[in-house]
Amino acid sequence: MIDQLAAAAGRDVSRETLAILERYAALLLRGNQQQNLIAPNSVSEIWPRHLLDGAQLLGVARRDGSWLDIGSGPGLPGMVIAILGGRPMTLNEPRKLRADFLRDTVEQLCLADVTVADAKVERLTGKFDLITARAVASLDKLFGMACHLAHSETKWVLPKGERAQSELDEARKAWQGDFRLVPSRTHPSSAIVVAEHVQRRGKR
Fold first, then answer.
1. What is the distance, to the nearest Å, from the Cα of residue 46 to the centroid of all Cα atoms in its chain?
2. In whole angstroms, how large is the CA radius of gyration of the chain?
3. Cis-peptide into 77, omega within 30 deg
4. 202 alpha-carbon distance from chain centroid
5. Distance (Å, rounded) from C-alpha 11 to C-alpha 84?
6. Which of 4, 62, 101, 195 has the smallest number of Cβ neighbours within 10 A?
7. For 82-96, how does the pLDDT look when each residue is reduced to its tens digit (9 = 90+)?
8. What is the per-residue DSSP string for 117-138?
9. Contact 134/159 with Cβ under 8 angstroms?
10. Could you check whether the bond before residue 159 is cis, i.e. omega within 30 degrees of 0?
């Protein structure tokens, strides 16, 4: 598993880091018994479907800096990225129960430079070097919700499903920038949208 994680994340993964990921997986499964954190049919595939899936975003990013995970839910993909070294990390989750789960998990795993922002993304302030979000909104809506949190060099790393290309085509009607699609390592029919220099069309 270490080799798979390292290949996905694009960096070495120590046994200590793997142990933290294993603890996170255990906390996730335990928390899933109290609230619906992940889909029941994905419990048996937690490593490929959730952990390796998050790890690959770190590899796609290929740079360090401050991260924001919008609509983090139980910490997917932000917690995985943070454990593997993507810090400082802000986990944005407006739902109280899930935000409480994130805070407890951060404390139990002793993750430095990881904070939980329990507010709607539109109310957040600051600027981030890397922004990710999983199953939050269409690209067009996501850019509209969070563009105030990006600076001129921010890289967006956004896992999308089979409709990645069509979502990108739709977003391009209102947004301009440098866009590319990276095939997902864990879902062959899915893609990751990588976007830089994103701004509304017509804006100077």
1. 16
2. 16
3. yes
4. 29
5. 9
6. 62
7. 999 999 999 999 999
8. E-S-GGG--S-EEEEEESSSS-
9. yes
10. no
Count H helices, E strands: the chain?
8, 7
Residue 83 DSSP label: H
What DSSP element (H or E) covers 108? Answer: helix 96-109
Which residues are bridge partners to 69 per DSSP? 91, 132
Give the pLDDT of residue 42.
75
- Per-residue model confidence as pLDDT tens digits over 39-71: 777 777 888 888 999 999 999 999 999 999 999
Q: What is the pTM of this model?
A: 0.95
**Burial of 190 by CB count in 10 Å (0-12 exposed, 13-18 middle, 19+ buried)?**
middle
Q: Beta strand 128-133 with 67-70: parallel, antiparallel or unpaired?
A: parallel
Q: How far apart are CA 12 and CA 10, in angstroms?
A: 7
Indicate the length of the chain as a whole number: 204
Residue 76, Ramachandran bin (φ over 0: left; ψ between -120 and 50: alpha; else beta): beta
20: enclosing H helix or E strand: helix 15-31
Q: Quote the CA–CA distance of 25 and 54 in Å, as a whole number.
A: 13
* 183 phi, psi to nearest 5 deg: -60, 140
- What does the alpha-carbon distance between residue 106 and residue 49 come to, in Å, rounded to a whole number? 21
CB 69 within 8 A of CB 130: no
Strand partners, 131: 68, 156
